[in-house]
């Protein structure tokens, strides 16, 4: 079984790297990118990645939701979402980033020891809460990537470097529109996460879990302020970037912080 997992991990990593190698020259040299070939490579990588995750997570004794498996699962969701969006939107600046993180996460999940068994049998509410939380975090992570891309494009334009000659880069206003739609969806999902947690997770406010709830709520408040500031006050630029990055950082600390110490450092 471990040999199969190692093989799937290496195959997925190579496919992701192949997709990256087809994108980078187009960004650097402003040449055409073979969209269909990149999509096929990405589809094969994501399929193999999903197959690997099913082997890593599904366990005869429960579901192995270790921190490394969850990180790889989030990378899978982000890669799947952006790869599908690739067909309609020029995401070439973001795809090498998310594919690189996917390679790191899936190799770590396969080759580094980490176990955290969860039992969802008869716990539909817990499964619902975790599913919404995963999609909320993935969506807001994509929002943070869009914010970084928006800041980079804005910097280049202000530096008077012509971006229009590179057909692989998206228009600034289109990136901004997509950014706020993504953050709005992610904030709604985060709201649902907090509500389902408060209703169904009795241990949510216990001392060992309270920091997760507090950090998640602060992140939710930041995203609400960001959306209010944009739609009511017209906020753009650095305010949006820092609020988006801060929100994602707080969510990362809420979920991964203590678990990283317990599962990786202490082990």
TrEMBL record:
Alphabetical list of PANTHER family matching this protein: INNER MEMBRANE PROTEIN YPJD (PTHR38034:SF1)
Alphabetized Pfam families for the sequence: Cytochrom_C_asm
UniProt-listed GO biological process terms: cytochrome complex assembly
GO molecular function annotations of the record: heme binding
Membrane-spanning ranges: 6-28, 35-53, 65-85, 92-114, 126-148, 179-201, 213-231, 240-258
Domain of life: Bacteria
The entry's keywords: Membrane, Transmembrane, Transmembrane helix
Location of the Cytochrome c assembly protein domain: 39-265
InterPro entries named in the record: Cyt_c_assembly, YpjD/HemX
Protein known as: Inner membrane protein YpjD
Cellular component terms (Gene Ontology): plasma membrane
């Amino acid at each position: 079984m471990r040999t199969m997992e190692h093989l799937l991990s290496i195959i997925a990593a190579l496919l992701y790297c192949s997709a990256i190698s087809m994108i980078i020259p187009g960004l650097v040299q402003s040449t055409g990118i073979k969209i269909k070939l990149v999509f096929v490579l990405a589809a094969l990588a994501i399929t193999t990645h999903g197959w690997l995750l099913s082997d890593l997570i599904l366990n005869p004794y429960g579901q192995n939701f270790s921190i490394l498996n969850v990180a790889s699962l989030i990378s899978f969701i982000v890669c799947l979402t952006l790869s599908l969006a690739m067909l309609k939107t020029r995401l070439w600046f973001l795809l090498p980033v998310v594919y690189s993180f996917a390679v790191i996460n899936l190799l770590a999940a396969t080759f580094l020891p980490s176990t955290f068994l969860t039992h969802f049998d008869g716990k539909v509410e817990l499964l619902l809460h975790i599913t919404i939380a995963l999609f909320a975090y993935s969506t807001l992570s994509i929002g943070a990537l869009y914010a970084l891309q928006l800041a980079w494009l804005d910097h280049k334009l202000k530096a008077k470097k012509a971006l229009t000659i590179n057909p692989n880069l998206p228009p600034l206003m289109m990136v901004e529109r997509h950014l706020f739609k993504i953050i709005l969806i992610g904030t709604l999902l985060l709201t649902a996460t907090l509500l389902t947690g408060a209703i169904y997770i009795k241990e949510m406010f216990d001392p060992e879990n309270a920091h997760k709830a507090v950090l998640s709520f602060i992140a939710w408040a930041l995203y609400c302020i960001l959306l209010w500031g944009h739609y009511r006050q017209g906020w753009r630029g650095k305010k949006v970037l820092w609020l988006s990055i801060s929100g994602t950082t707080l969510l990362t600390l809420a979920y991964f912080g203590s678990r990283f110490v317990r599962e990786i450092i202490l082990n």
